[in-house]
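Q: What structure does this chain adopt?
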Amino acid sequence: MEIQKELIDELLKDYKKPEDVIGENGLLKQLTKALLERAMGAELTAHLGYEKSDPAGYNSGNSRNGSTAKTLKGEFGEMVVETPRDRNGTFEPQIVKKRQTRFDGFDDKILSMYARGMTTREIQGHLTEMYGVEVSPALISEVTEEVVEEVKAWQNRPLEPVYGVVYLDALYVKMRHEGRVENRAVYVAIGISLDGQKDVLGLWTSNNEGAKFWLGVLTELKNRGVKEILIACVDGLKGFPQAIESVYPQTIVQLCIVHLVRASLNYVGWKERKQVAADLKEIYRAATAVQAEMELATFQTRWGQKYQAIGKLWKENWTRVVPFFEFPEEVRKVIYTTNAVESLHMSLRKIIKTRGSFPSEEAALKLIYLALRNVIQKWETVQGWRQALNHFQMLWGDRIQAALNR
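A:
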């Protein structure tokens, strides 16, 4: 709708300073109030079927019945608007709904601040400072509690039938569980669909990462529509490979090299970490599995006496290390590391660190989910995915097609 220049000039004829327009009692706030009240008046006219003071309304069975003052919170601060009523009580305005106490978008601002890790007190202070609006902790809690049902729906939504790669890793969060604060694991699964798009498939919490827990996670994914996982990249948690193979027997389980290197360096002093890391790199950057095994032997010759535990760690996990050597270099980068999860966790930790602990598992998942929404919006197609998908099609084209047709 084009606003006439003459009307704007008329409104601004007494303008002297910015506060006259955007201040607490400025023109924008006055206009918003006037427009809302006129709009609700127009809605009531449409509801009744006749204009105010129109004789057509006599003995019509319903009529105007004054107004009720309502206080709305928003970017203009607090605003009192007069909501018209009808005598029969059947009128429900749409632009400012019954029981609505906040402007559209105001709740989104609260959720946005909450998702960035701001505490209730910080949100209160920010809203007062920026908009001159005082909100109670109860109101903030009410707004964020509305997300709980959204989280449940998201956690149970249908998934793609095939994922080329699924990464799974844990983030440890302090939360109250059964009356005491525990450092519990929140597991995040990221899947790459056939079109190269990353998505978080779900969140699960547990203090026990055994086979039974992982079997439940994988069964849930299958029940939500995941027919095939081509490659699962995991961090070496006990029981997870067996759970995958139980539910998805044809899935290749790849141990995350980043986790294996990190676990290895836990045995090494700071002065030698750089050199040990460089020698370990020779193993996983080898051209073939045979060459990698030779590099492991070389590593053990050099460091085995001092760091025997590292060689033992790699040998025990060797069958889970070597699968990615069957793929070309550009595909390996997509497969062998859970960097996708690591970068996500880095973003989440920045938000979670503002909280000492969460009062419940639900509260923790609520914040993590809101933070995930912000992160996922910025995700792009995985680099090198086209080459990876071509390779997958050559190896498992029949499996992929069969899953899509089920």
